[in-house]
Amino acid sequence: MDGIKYAVFTKKSLRLLGKNQYTSNVESGFTKTEIKHWVELFFGVKVVAVNSHRLPGKGRRMGPILGHTMHYRRMIITLQLGYSIPLLDRETN
């Protein structure tokens, strides 16, 4: 699970939770198949689809030196009906 950085909570990702879709940022070198396999093993769920897009790095400047942060990939993971990732559920107790 080293490839998955963290879960993303934006307006769109919170809306997608209602459709049983979870959003997270992952390292840019990993493929959809690897992420699908890790999620199924670690959380014990059935993944139906994995969509991804690459987000560009941001420009940084330290004095006269120009640089940038690393780019990363955002994955939208769709689970089969009846499955959920317990750490990311929005249910209130």
From TrEMBL:
Coiled-coil boundaries: none
Single Gene Ontology MF annotation: rRNA binding
Subcellular location: Plastid, Chloroplast
Function recorded in the entry: Binds to 23S rRNA.
Protein's UniProt name: Ribosomal protein L23
Gene Ontology annotations of biological process type: translation
Species name: Digitaria exilis
Keyword Ribonucleoprotein: yes
Pfam families: Ribosomal_L23
